[in-house]
TrEMBL record:
Its main location: other. One of its GO terms (molecular function) is antioxidant activity. It holds the Pfam family AhpC-TSA. It is found in: Cell envelope. This is Peroxiredoxin. One of its GO terms (cellular component) is cell envelope. The lineage of its organism: Bacteria, Pseudomonadati, Bacteroidota, Sphingobacteriia, Sphingobacteriales. Residues 191-333 form the Thioredoxin domain. InterPro entries: AhpC/TSA, DUF4369, Thioredoxin-like_sf, Thioredoxin_CS, Thioredoxin_domain, Thioredoxin_ResA/DsbE_sf. It comes from Pedobacter caeni. GO terms for biological process: cytochrome complex assembly. The keyword Translocase does not apply.
Length: 336
């Protein structure tokens, strides 16, 4: 299942979501760490596609313990190394027992005492899950809401997301995933096919400000990518080919990077020989243009006609070539 590279990871901030429906409650986490008698275990909170450290516990004779008051139920993480991806764990009120095994991204770790986590573990073992069925079978659980957010929202239409949200118990309506998905539906609707492409200003590698609208007048591909994104880098040769084939006929590319390291961004541009307009605010998933266009996964793109109207989304490879061949059968007149 293709994720947002949420192997590391809409880009809408949970900080903007008012009022969790969860209550604060006490949870005790009692755990052991395979092959480690000392060190630390880090308790982390999932927020805006990333985990942030809340607390740490000393490992003594291979065991550790947390006793915390947290918003529950909710997704948290446990990690032996705070700079690496943690074990995802849904916590509930009461006691949870954890056997941490860091090998293979914690795939052999065991969690007991949380019904929500049991459901999440069961989901991860299934293949070809139908989100509508999963929600209908568990309408009052936070887990399907999270799964809809994480694994399905980037490949569903706004109407499909809306329909699945309506299957959830109303008590979940103000939980972060549901609230963010509602915002996403509104955003995606506002930038749907036939809508005017929202303008924005970005910063080029040279530090200059440039507006998207400065590139209107041609068929324009607004491309969202990042140097750290493997699928993006594999798609870049297709974009280079399309650019070389259609640029003189009236096609251009305006690329927005979700990088956070300028040197890596510039190296990616150079290495992949991307000779079109580039901008980035180096804000990772907090990229303002990505939020504006409801980008939930990368690579992503929006095809804009010469009048600034959106006429396509997420066209890649052969699909992009066919679309441009159709649109530019008669090359656009060059502007003076």
């Amino acid at each position: 299942m293709r994720r947002i590279l949420t192997i590391a990871a809409l880009s809408l901030l949970f900080a903007n979501v008012a009022g969790y429906a969860q209550d604060k409650g006490n949870v005790e986490i009692a755990g052991t760490v395979k092959g480690q008698n000392s060190g630390k275990v880090y308790l982390q909170k999932f927020d805006n596609k990333m985990f942030f450290t809340l607390d740490s516990a000393e490992v003594k004779d291979g065991a550790f313990k947390f006793n915390k008051t947290l918003k529950l139920p909710e997704l948290y993480g446990l990690a032996i190394n705070k700079d690496e991806s943690p074990l995802y764990i849904f916590l509930e009120k009461g006691k949870v027992n954890v056997s941490l095994d860091a090998e293979g991204y914690y795939k052999n770790s065991v969690v007991t005492g949380s019904a929500s986590n049991d459901l999440f573990t069961s989901y991860k073992k299934q293949k070809d899950v139908k989100i509508e069925t999963f929600i209908k079978e568990n309408p009052g659980s936070l887990v399907p809401a999270y799964v809809l957010y994480r694994d399905f929202s980037y490949r569903l239409s706004p109407e499909e997301i809306r329909q699945n949200l309506q299957l959830l118990d109303p008590k979940l309506s103000n939980t972060p995933y549901v609230a963010v998905l509602k915002d996403l539906v509104n955003t995606l609707t506002s930038v749907g096919i036939g809508k005017k492409a929202p303008d924005f200003e970005g910063t080029t590698p040279e530090g200059k400000s440039i507006k998207l609208s400065a590139s209107f007048g041609k068929y324009l591909l607004l491309d969202f990518w990042a140097s750290w994104c493997g699928p993006c880098r594999r798609e870049n040769p297709n974009l280079v080919k399309a650019y070389q084939k259609y640029h003189d006929k009236g096609f251009d590319i305006f690329a927005v990077s979700l990088d956070k390291n300028k040197e890596a961004w510039l190296k990616g541009i150079k290495d992949d020989q991307l000779s079109w307009t580039h901008v980035s605010d180096l804000a990772f998933w907090n990229s303002a243009p990505a939020r504006l266009y409801g980008v939930r996964a990368i690579p992503a793109n929006v095809l804009i006609d010469p009048n600034g109207v959106i006429i396509g989304r997420n066209l890649r490879g052969e699909d992009l070539d066919k679309k441009l061949e159709e649109l530019l059968a008669t090359p656009l007149a060059k502007t003076p």
